[in-house]
Write a structure and sequence with these properties.
Helix content is 76%, strand content 1%. It has a two-stranded antiparallel sheet. It is an all-alpha fold and 269 residues long.
Length: 269
């Protein structure tokens, strides 16, 4: 396997993944998120004189600056829809190809399985990075042009938040690939991981309640769960959690490692 062969495989995989509707939808949603955050702040600023909350002008509650706009775009991007679309793109690239037997055709060629998996992970990671840029560029660039750069939210903090979000996306992609080695349908992968993450959220909420009631061990257990690792980007506001990044390292190594191990041994129909 030469570098030229690997680049050729990556190009083929990129055409396949980016040619699907899920990848295009992810890019469109990411762009609309960045532009929408910018337009929403512009509208709110224009209506600020007539909008009050608890008797106080809205301008006292919302920061108008480029980094603040980008921060809101990041929150909206990571809320639900875009992670779901990225998960859909991941499932389509693995479980979907098992279902339509296109993955079997790729494995018939003299290409090691780990190279096939590597190419999928790289292209899906590039898709995640492009969606982050699609949200960052219009929100931060347009926000600075319209509102300036002064405020409590800084450009470096927002950029770190977007960088940490790439780790979260890679962790989610890893879970999606791993689930695809067990569940052989796109819908099954998406539903199973949604249920898993919902259970994780519920368990972490319960553990927080137990910690509040005095169970010292509950907080440590909650921080060790995958959901806390996937939320590592939330620390960009100034409260980075080292546990979250430690959990993310474990999540990345275990999910991609187990996927590679399973893929080497599984029968692809």
């Amino acid at each position: 396997m030469t570098a030229a062969h690997l680049l050729g495989i990556l190009r083929v995989e990129a055409r396949t993944i980016y040619g699907r509707g899920s990848a295009r939808l992810a890019l469109v949603v990411a762009l609309l998120t960045g532009v929408g955050a910018l337009l929403a702040h512009q509208w709110i600023q224009g209506q600020a004189a007539s909008i009050e909350a608890n008797g106080a002008p809205v301008t006292q509650m919302i920061e108008f600056s480029g980094p603040a706009v980008a921060g809101w775009a990041l929150r909206v991007r990571n809320f639900f829809v875009l992670p779901l679309v990225l998960l859909l793109a991941t499932a389509a690239s693995f479980a979907g190809e098992i279902g339509d037997q296109s993955l079997r055709e790729a494995l018939v060629r003299p290409v090691p399985r780990f190279v096939v998996l590597f190419s999928k992970a790289v292209v899906l990671g590039s898709l995640a990075a492009l969606t982050l840029l699609a949200s960052l560029i219009p929100s931060l660039g347009g926000g600075i042009a319209l509102f300036g750069n002064e405020g409590s939210t800084t450009v470096p903090a927002v950029l770190l938040g977007f960088a940490a979000s790439l780790l979260s996306d890679l962790g989610l992609i890893g879970l999606g690939l791993l689930a695809s080695t067990f569940v052989r349908s796109v819908g099954g992968v998406v539903v199973s991981l949604i249920l898993l993450l919902m259970a994780d959220t519920g368990l972490r909420a319960m553990l927080k309640g137990m910690a509040w009631l005095g169970a010292d061990w509950a907080e440590a257990v909650g921080r060790a769960l995958p959901g806390n690792a996937l939320a590592c980007w939330e620390g960009w506001t100034g409260a980075w959690d080292p546990w979250a990044f430690g959990g993310m390292a474990v999540l990345l190594v275990s999910s991609y490692g187990l996927t590679a191990w399973r893929f080497q041994r599984m029968d692809v129909p």
